[in-house]
């Protein structure tokens, strides 16, 4: 026992307020990371940007992608965009003839070509009928493009729209997508209400169709590209993913999911890791003009064969006027089509980066472990060791994060654990400063903080108690409160001094009774009093003394009420009596000096305190001014008239509690009238708990015919109401008779 006390004191001394604050900070930062507000996201994203700037994707070797650029040179040569579809067809024919593996369009042909012969025939003036007829007999430009697409392997681009433009043609083909995993992929994907597709004549002959829509981050950078999305209630692959599906001959895309979201997308021989929303972290290489070929050169068929043969070809634009320039972590200005090329090259070279779905768990675990190490060991370190330990933890976090990126291309954030640990360090430094200031102040004025001379004397005899904290003791706790004091206060709304005088008038005798019976007044809460027994001094009969104090308090209130009633009669004003409710409970509490650097109070905390407060609140429900817990009643049963009231379940406690009323002292306990009422109450409770509803009601009726039955009238009405409810809706199997308190 002595060793246990020493251990408790050591723990209280070593595990102080600063550690508790740091634990709260640790939990708070974990909650912040899970919530992941935009500032936290951006800090993490900037870290990942730095990694790519330091170590971008290696672009050495043969480049698998060529970009056909509708650049300013091409526009100057062939005119403004959009070009006639025949010119696009010529481009496809030349690229196919030069050995392109697949051709992807980062543009959409959503409307019929305005230069289709039949449209020209209807729009041109001064044409003779024969010419108009001849024009209408010519094949449309869209059909010519369709024929060129049919003879090649072309993936058309489509785009998501912020609103529905028109009904989708369900006869046009869609890429098949299936989900493999614990969750349906649809709820995790980015969604666009509308979908802009190509004209049907070319859409239906293409080898594939994919969205080239790219989402920017809050800061305008493009770090992640959605590989799969929802558009107008259809799951659609991205342009780059569809190109990969076409060249690998994959009939259906498989989307792997778990409870956290999308994990990867699987093709034949390839699995592409994604974030939970199906986005691929693009592993960028610096912008490289060498993979660009002017569309003008393709149309002139002057491109070296090595630039096209065996390549994946993307057709897009870098022309400033066409507004398809993006910002990435490695480049301030990169044509949007090159981002698709970067995705293709990353996947084909196996140089993808990813943030695993378990990354959040790793970051939280790292912050927890390092945070706990700091909380445990930091207060015991000197300044030099503290700085060295901080530098070591920072180096470990940064180094581990970089190791995962450099070796495995995993994005593991070190900023969150570093911020969390830094906050804990700063808190300890601040707490150390505050503690020194507080100790100096306590030495000068600690004894002036306490009002009780007994407590001051004990503190003088035991200086080790002059600390925040305390000890566990078995105690009896009292809460008392004046019933209807709000109504009484309203009668003094024009006489505040009179209200203060009234409070002092009844609080003074109640306080005197508590002190006389060896109790300690903890605090006043308006008209309420909190007190306890068996601390700071030992009291072997603290339960009995507390019960005696409670009865004397009622007697003192009666004296005050009689005097007030006479004063009201003499003064001709309304008399409102003071009625006090008292709750007593015995149990283990933590008692000691509690508070802040500026103000302390010798007080008690614990479940037993909460129950005493609840019991005081129930005095108005059961009709008895003094209600006590089972341990108090057991200790005082030989000296007071104890009456069992109920078997209750208090919110926050797992075990129910039997509660009792104190009806008087020994003279009441031995009276015949009390014994009859006690026996009737026992019979009623026995029938009630055994579900004999009628037997309980019969006992209540007999009780009402007994002497002093009005004492139990509230109790009888309370059980009558419960029984009627149970007759309509019986309690469940295993019901023990416990009643859950709904009021405080």
Quickly count the helices.
26
Mean pLDDT: 84
The share of residues in extended strands comes to 15-25%
Give start-end ranges of low-pLDDT stretches.
443-452, 463-468
**Distance between the ends:** 37 Å
Domain unit count:
4
Structural class: alpha/beta
- Roughly how many Å is the radius of gyration? 42 Å
> In which range does the helix fraction lie?
40-55%
Q: What's the overall geometry?
A: elongated
E-strand count: 27
Could you give a short account of the major beta sheet? 9 strands, mixed
InterPro entries: A/G_cyclase, Adenylyl/Guanylyl_Cyclase_3/4, CHASE2, Cro/C1-type_HTH, Nucleotide_cyclase
Domain HTH cro/C1-type: 694-726
Main location: other
Keywords: Cell membrane, Membrane, Transmembrane, Transmembrane helix
């Amino acid at each position: 026992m002595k060793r246990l006390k020493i251990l408790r004191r050591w723990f209280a001394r070593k595990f102080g307020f600063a550690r508790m604050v740091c634990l709260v900070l640790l939990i708070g930062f974990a909650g912040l990371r899970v919530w992941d507000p935009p500032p936290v996201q951006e800090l993490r994203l900037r870290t990942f940007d730095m990694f790519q700037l330091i170590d971008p994707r290696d672009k050495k070797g043969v480049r698998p992608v060529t970009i056909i650029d509708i650049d300013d040179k091409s526009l100057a040569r062939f005119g403004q965009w959009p070009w006639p579809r025949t010119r696009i067809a010529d481009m496809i024919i030349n690229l196919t003839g030069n050995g392109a593996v697949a051709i992807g369009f980062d543009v959409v042909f959503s409307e019929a070509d305005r230069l289709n012969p039949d449209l020209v025939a209807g729009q041109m003036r001064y044409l003779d009928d024969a010419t108009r007829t001849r024009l209408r007999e010519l094949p449309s430009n869209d059909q010519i493009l369709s024929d060129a697409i049919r003879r090649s392997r072309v993936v058309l681009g489509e785009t998501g729209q912020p609103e529905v433009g028109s009904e989708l043609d369900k006869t046009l083909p869609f890429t098949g997508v299936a989900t493999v995993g614990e969750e349906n992929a649809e709820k995790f994907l980015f969604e666009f209400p509308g979908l802009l597709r190509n004209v049907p004549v070319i859409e239906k002959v293409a080898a594939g169709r994919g969205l080239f829509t790219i989402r920017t981050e809050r800061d305008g950078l493009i770090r992640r590209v959605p590989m799969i999305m929802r558009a107008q209630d259809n799951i659609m692959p991205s342009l780059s993913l569809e190109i990969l599906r076409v060249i690998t001959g994959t009939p259906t895309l498989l989307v792997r999911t778990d409870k956290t979201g999308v994990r990867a997308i699987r093709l034949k021989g390839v699995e592409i890791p994604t974030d939970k929303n199906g986005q691929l972290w693009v592993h960028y290489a610096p912008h490289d003009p060498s993979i660009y070929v002017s569309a003008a050169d393709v149309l002139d068929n002057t491109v070296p064969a090595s630039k096209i043969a065996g390549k994946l070809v993307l057709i897009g634009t870098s022309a400033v006027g066409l507004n398809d320039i993006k910002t990435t972590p490695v480049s301030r200005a990169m044509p949007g089509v090159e981002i698709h090329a970067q995705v293709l090259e990353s996947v084909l070279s196996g140089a993808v980066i990813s943030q695993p779905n378990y990354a959040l768990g790793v970051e939280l675990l790292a912050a927890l472990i390092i945070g706990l190490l700091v909380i445990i060991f930091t207060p015991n370190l000197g300044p030099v060791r503290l700085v060295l330990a901080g530098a070591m933890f920072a180096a470990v976090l940064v180094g581990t994060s970089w190791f995962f990126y450099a070796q495995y291309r995993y994005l593991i954030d070190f900023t969150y654990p570093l911020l969390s640990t830094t906050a804990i360090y700063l808190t300890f430094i601040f707490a150390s400063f505050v503690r020194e200031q507080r100790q100096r102040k306590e030495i000068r004025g600690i004894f002036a903080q306490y009002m009780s001379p007994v407590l001051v004397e004990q503190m003088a005899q035991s200086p080790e108690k002059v600390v925040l904290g305390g000890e566990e003791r078995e105690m009896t706790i009292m809460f008392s409160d004046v019933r209807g004091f709000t109504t009484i206060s309203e009668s003094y709304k024009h006489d505040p001094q009179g209200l203060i005088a009234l409070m002092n008038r009844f609080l003074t005798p109640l306080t005197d009774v508590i002190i006389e019976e060896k109790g300690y007044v903890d605090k006043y809460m308006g008209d309420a009093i909190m007190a306890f027994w068996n601390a700071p001094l030992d009291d072997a009969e603290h339960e009995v003394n507390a019960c005696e104090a409670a009865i004397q308090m009622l007697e003192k209130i009666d004296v005050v009420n009689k005097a007030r009633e006479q004063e009201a009669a003499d003064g001709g004003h309304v008399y409102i009596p003071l009625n006090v409710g008292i709750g007593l409970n015995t149990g283990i509490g933590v008692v000691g000096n509690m508070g802040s650097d500026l103000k302390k109070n010798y007080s008690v905390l614990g479940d037993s305190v909460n129950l005493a407060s609840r019991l005081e609140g129930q005095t108005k429900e059961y009709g008895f001014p003094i209600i006590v817990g089972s341990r108090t009643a057991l200790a005082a049963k030989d000296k007071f008239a104890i009456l069992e009231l109920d078997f209750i379940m208090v919110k926050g406690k797992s075990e129910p509690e039997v509660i009792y009323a104190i009806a008087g002292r020994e003279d009441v306990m031995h009276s015949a009238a009390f014994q009859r009422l006690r026996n009737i109450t026992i019979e009623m409770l026995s029938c009630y708990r055994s579900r004999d509803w009628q037997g309980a009601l019969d006992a209540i009726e007999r009780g009402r015919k007994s002497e002093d039955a009005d004492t139990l009238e509230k109790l009888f009405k309370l059980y009558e109401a419960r029984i009627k409810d149970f007759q309509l809706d019986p309690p469940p199997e295993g019901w023990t008779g416990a009643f859950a308190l709904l009021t405080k």
